[in-house]
Amino acid sequence: MLPSFLSSPDDLQKLADDIKSWAINFGFAEARIVEPDLAQYKDEFNEWIDNQYHAGMDYLANHGDMRFYPEQLHPGTRRVISLRMHYLPQSVETVGRLKTKDKAYIARYALGRDYHKLIRKRLTQLAKKVEQQVGDHGYRAFVDSAPILERQIAEQAGMGWIGKNTLLLTPKAGSWFLLGEIFTNLPLPVDKPTTDRHCGSCTACLTQCPTDAFVEPWVLDAGKCISYLTIEHKGPIPEPLRSKMGNRIFGCDDCQLVCPWTKFAKYTKEEDFQPRHDLDSAGLVELFKWDEATFLKKTEGSPIRRTGYENWQRNIAVALGNAPTSDLTVQTLEAALHTSSELVKEHIIWALEQHKR
Known about the structure:
Elements: H1 9-25, E1 30-34, H2 42-50, H3 70-73, E2 79-86, H4 95-99, E3 105-106, H5 115-134, E4 139-142, H6 150-156, E5 161-162, E6 168-169, E7 177-184, H7 204-207, E8 214-216, E9 219-220, H8 226-232, H9 239-242, E10 248-250, H10 254-257, H11 284-288, H12 292-298, H13 309-322, H14 327-336, H15 342-354
Parallel strand pairs: 3-10
Antiparallel strand pairs: 1-2, 2-7, 4-7, 5-6, 8-9
């Protein structure tokens, strides 16, 4: 039952306006409210799974229909508050770093503190702020942490549109932002959905993907995606894809970098998203020489920890194979050949072969 002071549409509208204002105060770039209709995406999603485009991410095939029915994730859900937060530091190079082949390229969202922790904290603070005003409103906060169609929710909330690269795009900021959601039992007034996808005839993200990971517009084969290969994938990286990975050792931003809407990107003001341990400018050799203790220490509180030390070494070995040939590069690879795991050794041998050509 709603408190008596929320008995009229005007009262609920004021609360919705307050929530959006509070969200800005908590560091979000935007907040919008939606009563999502997600069942319409069920057939498309299941076809994607049936085609094995989720690769080794078996968790995407789990949880039944939960992602299509928000009330199954949080009983009593009536609305979803969709929020976004900018993450790109102004001081960080993007395209220039990709062209410097002896330096590592790490997806720009992963240079600082783990966004899960930062955004979840802010979502909880916002939800508790609402609670202070209206009492227990029955809520649950999510940051890429449950079976949620977050981009579809954001699109239905009018935050932007899903681009051909499968990312959410907005004319206000391109796609350099992260999403979070608060499921709430409050019957808040909703925002108008996005009805048009403004990609037009542009295919830059599709044609310039290094590994040709897009089957068609809006359909990504994760098994070819560098982000998947360097973060989620376990085992050897398929050999035909290794030379295409360049110096990308954790994630990939290429389909954002070539998107025309990127020119509208807004930079983050969050100190926690600033690069740690010079990861925006570190050399491949330097990072390859980290032992496991160093890796664990320097990735504490970082999303990079997710890939694990062995895969970190695997990824850098591939990048060193794609780096300019030098005595230092070859000597570094040879020195690690006999002390590395079988998985890493396979990629070191491949890398050394590249420098004999």
